[in-house]
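User: Predict Serine transporter's structure from this.
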Amino acid sequence: MDQTSSTRFSLTWVLNLFGTAVGAGVLFLPINAGMGGFLPLVVMAVLVGPMTYLAHRGLARFVLSSKQPGSDITSVVREHFGKLAGVMITLLYFLAIFPILLIYGVGITNTVASFLENQLQMPVPPRYILSLILIAVMIGVMLLNEAVMLKITTYLVYPLVAILLGLSIYLIPHWNGAALSEVPQAGDFALTLWLTIPVLVFAFNHSPAISSFALSQQKFYQDPAQTDKNASRTLRCTAGILVLFVMFFVFSCVLTLTPQELAEAKSQNISVLSYLANKFDNPVISYFGPLVAFLAIGSSFFGHYLGAREGLEGLVNQLRDEPIKPAKFKKITAVIFLVTLWIVATINPSILGFIESLGGPVIAMILFIMPMYAIRTVPSLQKFGGKLSNVFVVVMGLIAISAIVYGLF
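Assistant:
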């Protein structure tokens, strides 16, 4: 295998994983992360890279630990933990991802409707028609083969990266010292950090695509040692560009707005781009803001769709004597997801914060805790044990879970 095809393959996956991670969470991250001032933000920027890389590497290694090459995450769970635990964990995996898919169905409808009405001054079609067309187009892309779907996701990510970077630079002249002058007390500092970690987990999460990613690496490289080495390198690059682009965007937004304005954005329940567009009444932000939201939701939708389909397929097949063939299941899930997403997007519920707050701890359990537990208990994974990085992943996972329990009560 030549180096060029390996590099191209890795780059395609870096962009695909980046696209999966950069969704709705990133557009709300500056609000949650910046309200406590500048110092907690610096600590978050230091923590989030290792957190993201080590947790996703652990999950990829877990997927690749099966005795049967080509086993997806739901099969590996059943193989290592038995049938009952397998069903429970597969259900958790599905519940971590599917609600986010519902968020994206609502989000894409709202973004396009708002753009048609406010920026293009066009009449908006009835919501039930608009949502059906948008969701049908996105699910239609998912029914294409994996190579085409990866290509489309990759093409969506290029403008997303460019516009995120462009907006971050565009805001520099508007930076003020309000966030820098906000020096929190030690207790407030710790509380801000504690309560923002679940938002970081949510905003940087690309776990729905990790099972497909790991199997794709296995198929491409064949040799297990080579697969692990290259998968780790790809995940390291993904975490690096995520920290670089997303945290620059977060810093730029936080330095542009005061903590009071960020709190106001939170109370209005709008993304930071919507707030900036309203604050500056500026055509650049007015047009590029919805475009970023559209690209972020579009690229992230594909990774979450793959994960949700895999979870549902694993769940159904574990409860049946005779598994449904993958090609048939693809069509069944397309219909189920189309109908469900369409109904939810038409109703337009205001439960997004509630779903996100429940999605966070489940993601943390699947992404941070389960692979580390497997490293201690599964013989084929024990070679990865005894490392300080594993302790770090477990601690961050437990903090994410505990912070959301605190938020709920």
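The mean pLDDT is 84.
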